[in-house]
Amino acid sequence: MINIRKLESELWESADLLRAGSKLTSNQYCMPVLGLIFLRYAFSRFKMVEAEILKDRPKRGGRVMPVEASDFAAKSALFLPKEAQYDYLLNLPKDIASAGMVNKAGHSMNTLGEVVNNAMELIEEQSEQLTGVLPKTYTDFSDDLLNDLLRIFSNSALDEVGGDIVGRIYEYFLNKFAKNIASDDGVFFTPKSLVKMIVNILEPKSGVLLDPACGSGGMFIQSGDFVNQSGMNANSAMTFYGQEKVGYNAQLCLMNMAVHGLTGKIKSGDEANTFYHDAHNLMGKCDYVMANPPFNVDKVKAADCADDKRLSFGNPSINKNNEFGNANYLWISYFYSYLNDKGRAGFVMASSATDSQGKDKDIRQKLVQTGHVDVMISVGNNFFYTKSLPCSLWFFDKTKPQELKDKVLFIDARNYFTVVDRTLNEWSEWQLKNLNAIVWLHRGEKDKYSRLLAEYHEELNSDKAFADILVILQDEETSLRAEAKNAVDDAKKAEKAAKAKKEKYTGKKAKAVQAEYDEKLAELAERITTAKEAVWLYEKFGEGEYADVLGLCKAATIDEIETKGWSLTPGAYVGVAPVEDDGVDFGERMKEIRQELLQLQAESNKLMDTISKNMKELGV
Q1: Residues 538, 613: one domain?
Q2: Is residue 232 one of the residues assigned to a domain?
């Protein structure tokens, strides 16, 4: 069984170490490295499909007929000419110039960078979707650096599970580069947990999906995974459309989709500027719209879009320069306009948009009155790599059942997250499922909630009541930690004795013991986290009945929303959760604080007296 997290980390550390030793910036390094991961994926897929073709390959004159590009086209797979195959590049002679190779244009190639550039051009000839997309800047790399990178991604583990693993690694590298580069405030990468939340609530099944600010394509990838996991084929069931003004980001998107085996129609450049263009002519035609648009954009020219048919709720405010001073409600109106009569939309938006005033409020009122605003989720700080501000997730649904048409589900998840590091938070897989469960229960989908409870039971491998699980595991953790400490103490003693006897193998054994117990503790910590999330959910909703939970969720009617001035801020409806008793006697603690202050004041007075005395002695 492959440890994918360990593999991701090892590959990144190896590749980043090479970057650090070169003169390349993360920005220069990002696209070419992702291109090599794509190349590695394409070769894995090529070998797999080639094996399938050769199984039933007819023979002529005793020889198996050679595989051709048309054979791959028949299987909707990418054909790779010999010079674009990964193992060919990996086994080239060290002295490229002496090999006498020429590129597709007939020119001599003298460096490995030229050979890899040529490979990318040959692949683009095989795929209309990839034409002009793959990186061709490999001559910026020294041959030694490029050869080392090729060897890093030749890891045989990448063949064992195929595209799924390579796709994850592509996303992992994209994630890492997003944090390092912070390009355009990281707009080319929407954190995975936000994307998953949107996809999980919209539940795409089949039809047209549009992301009019598609960045690196995360919405397409997660939607494809969701559809495939339901037993359907994403490429057959879905049609993916994207708009992305920044060409660099569109390249990342198309490679990302190709690595995940998806096809789509992505437009970039000025014609893909969603403020001014419906590039695919999809108004009123989409089953799903998903997006993470740039927030609070100003200086959008009103004259170029004020009469746009996508603004059916009216124009946002226009300033004296004949510009939209804030484009948030342009995006919101556009997203709604793309939906067909059964469409659903989910998108990320600046928190300020939930209760902004003026014409924004008028548009928001009209939106709420359609009955199509479905769910609003407040997200806490630090969910983006380069922004610490909170945001909101908005959801529209034109297929809401009649009994819910008058209601909007508000969820305040600002205090519900997992800390990744000092500057980054996310939702864990269990937290995503728990938030999704609130939506299920609101929709009356108790069967999905029951399956989640069963999943918790199976994961924890316990028939105990949920309320007992955490206590049991905490006791188990305490016991194991004690055992681990004893083992480490014994190991340290053994290591000390070994040094005295110059028997160094004992010291290695001590480290092995430590590593073994660290691994056990990590596994146990994961079980404890799972148990905590199970308790969090079960304490609130039991066997599966939706109820408003103070400080967390509230199903508000349109009349209630009107009384709140048409605000869509979850905090305005869910209230504040009661503060848990921390066991501290407030009166006693105030006495202690007062004593501490009096003591500090006395010390301060004493210090001032000493300073005053010293000043007098100095004649000041």
Answers
A1: no
A2: yes
Q: Which amino acid is at 194?
A: L
Q: Which segments of 165-228 are extended strands (E)?
A: 207-211
Q: 360 and 239, same structural domain?
A: yes
User: How far apart, in whole angstroms, are the C-alpha atoms of residue 599 and residue 268?
Assistant: 67
Identify the DSSP state of 121. H
Same structural domain, 149 and 9: yes
Domain that holds residue 362: 183-429
Check: CB of residue 513 under 8 Å from CB of residue 487: yes
CATH of the domain at 118: 1.20.1260.30
- Other C-beta atoms within 10 Å of 284: how many? 13
State percent of the chain over pLDDT 70: 79
Closest residue by Cα to residue 212 from 134, 294, 154, 130 = 294
| Domain boundary, last residue among 429, 455, 481 | 429
> Could you tell me which residues are beta bridge partners of residue 410?
376, 554
**CATH code of the domain containing 342:** 3.40.50.150
The count of domains in the chain is 4
Report if residue 561 sits inside a domain. Answer: no
Q: Does 188 lie in the same domain as 134? A: no
The pLDDT assigned to 56 comes to: 78
What are φ and ψ of residue 570, in 5° steps? -55, -40
**Both tokens assigned to 74:** 């028949």
Look up residue 280 and give its two tokens.
């695919």
Q: Residues 25, 27, 29, CA angle at the centre, nearest 5°?
A: 70
Nearest C-alpha neighbor of 133 from the set 46, 29, 34: 34
For residue 307, is it within any domain? Answer: yes
Could you tell me which of 11, 12, 36, 41 has the C-alpha nearest to residue 161? 41
Q: Are residues 480 and 338 in the same domain?
A: no
pLDDT digits (tens, 9 = 90+) for 34-54: 999 999 988 888 888 888 888
Structure tokens at 563: 């009384």
Q: How confident is the model at residue 319 (pLDDT cuts 50, 70, 90)?
A: very high
Structure confidence by residue, pLDDT tens digits, 245-302? 988 889 889 988 888 888 999 999 999 999 999 999 999 999 999 999 999 999 899 9
From residue 195, how far is each of 90, 351, 452 by CA, in Å?
Answer: 36, 17, 20
Burial 585-618 (b: 16+ CB within 10 A, else e): eeeeeeeeeeeeeeeeeeeeeeeeeeeeeeeeee
Residues 156 and 192 in one domain: no
Whether residue 612 sits in one domain with residue 526:
no
Residues 341 and 490 in one domain: no
Domain end, chosen from 518, 545, 572, is at 545
Q: What is the mean pLDDT of the chain?
A: 85
Q: Which residues contact 98 (CB under 8 A, 6 or more apart)?
A: none
pTM exceeds cut of 0.85: no
| SS3 per residue for 362-424 | HHHHHHHHCCCEEEEEEECCCCCCCCCCCEEEEEEECCCCHHHCCEEEEEEECCCCEEEECCE
Report if residue 611 sits inside a domain. Answer: yes
